[in-house]
Amino acid sequence: MKLNWFSPLPPAATDIGHFSKRLLPALVTRADVTVWTDQTKLDSALERHAEVRCYNLRGMPWADLNRGDLCIYNIGNNPLFHASIWEVARQHPGVVILHDTRLHHFFDGIYRVQRRDLSGYLAMMEFYYGAAALPEARECFMSEGRTIDVMAEKYPLTKLATENALGVVVHTRPGFATLKGSAPLTCLPLPFAALPRAAGRSDQSKRAGHQHFSLILFGYIGRNRRLNAVLDALATFPEREKFHVDIYGTILDDEKKIRTQIRALGLKGLVALHGFATEPELDAALSRADLAINLRYPTMGEASGSQLRIWAHALPSLVTQVGWYSDLPDDVVAHVRPGENEIADIQSHLRDFLGDPDRFRRMGERGWEILRQQHAPESYADQLIEFVKTVSHSTARNATFSLAETAGRLTAELFGTLPESMLKSVAAEIAALSEKSE
């Protein structure tokens, strides 16, 4: 098959770009793939796997897209990386891969932040949720998104991202349950290749207190990553001196404010902000770490590429007990309840870790096994291609039925009742056209 793949790409500050980079080597062995991007900066290594073409919404090469069998659109919650992909998908239907299933932040970014289009936002909200949703929508818009987290939970706007989709791919069971019945739908485990099994981390010198245990938090760190709660939990933890926290990645909120908080809580010697790290640098840091912190609240319905990277290093982790993360077994991750229990749960797990670090090490090893067994990029590529073939054949059949219906209606209007032999001839021509399209 010839596929057009729309996605942000490295070095864009989104894990969806890394998702594409991880998957493409397997995907291009199963299909002829052209990668499309509107970025000006690209990781040139991608061109070793597939042709990479740039596009602009003002001059889309629609004819080139039509020469392919199907377009695949990766949609996430950041309009900086996905707004143009969504615009193309609306005009040229294909398969949509939903990396988030609560997309109100995405459309708020488009309608309020980028366009300042209140009437368009209200019309969209009324179409999907009725007039009763308009007062809350207007309040969210006029307050510059003050209530956006509540709106995302109550009005996810997911169907606006899939309104013309020929098929939809999700990565979580809750997402599948939410969208079931709307369009051809499949749920595939997010891909990430397992690394060689890591050696044990909890050595005797750390148990004896001669070294810090290393905690790591990484990625694109917005308020939903709960960094403030982690710092507050550590600040009031009696044995905090036994830990050192390394934070890798971009602070999406006010980094200066975070640094001020670290100093005010007396954590300057225990917490280090390293900023953006390349993948090799991040992998090296993960290989040295003892425990990862991967909290997400509120969740946007996503599966976590960060969690898969943690498991690739057989590293134990703390995760928030919501969405995809809540389905992870208790012997694989340590769950943290959101809300008023959050700080107490973080401290409880840190205390448990100090008491029995080997139990946490075994959690990481079980995570590594799950990654190896369920998240191989080759398996994802196989399942995606099978789904695309099903969608493509279904689309061809639907087009055939539509053509037959139109032909029948026009024939009746022009000629009235026709002999059976002539009707069979028309049907045979339509069937031949259908076979050619497949």
Describe, in short, the structure shown.
Helices cover 49% and strands 15% of the residues.
Strand order, main sheet: write it out. Answer: 3-2-1-4-5-6-7
Let me know the largest β-sheet.
7 strands, parallel
Number of helices: 19
Tell me which oligomeric state these chains represent: single chain
Morphology call: globular
Model description:
With 438 residues, this protein is of the alpha/beta class. It has 19 helices and 13 strands. The strands form 2 sheets. The chain has a 7-stranded parallel beta sheet, sandwiched between helices. Strands 10-9-8-11-12-13 form a 6-stranded parallel beta sheet, with helices on both faces. α15 (323-326) links the parallel β12 (317-320) and β13. The radius of gyration is 25 Å and the shape is globular.
Which helices and strands appear, and what pairs or packs with what?
Blueprint: E1 2-6, H1 15-27, E2 32-37, E3 51-54, H2 62-66, E4 70-75, H3 79-91, E5 95-98, H4 104-114, H5 118-129, H6 134-142, H7 148-154, H8 158-161, E6 167-170, H9 173-179, E7 185-187, H10 204-207, E8 213-221, H11 227-235, E9 243-251, H12 255-264, E10 271-275, H13 279-288, E11 291-294, H14 305-312, E12 317-320, H15 323-326, E13 334-336, H16 342-355, H17 357-374, H18 377-415, H19 420-437
Parallel strand pairs: 1-2, 1-4, 2-3, 4-5, 5-6, 6-7, 8-9, 8-11, 9-10, 11-12, 12-13
Helix pairs in contact: 1-18, 3-4, 5-6, 11-16, 14-17, 16-17, 18-19
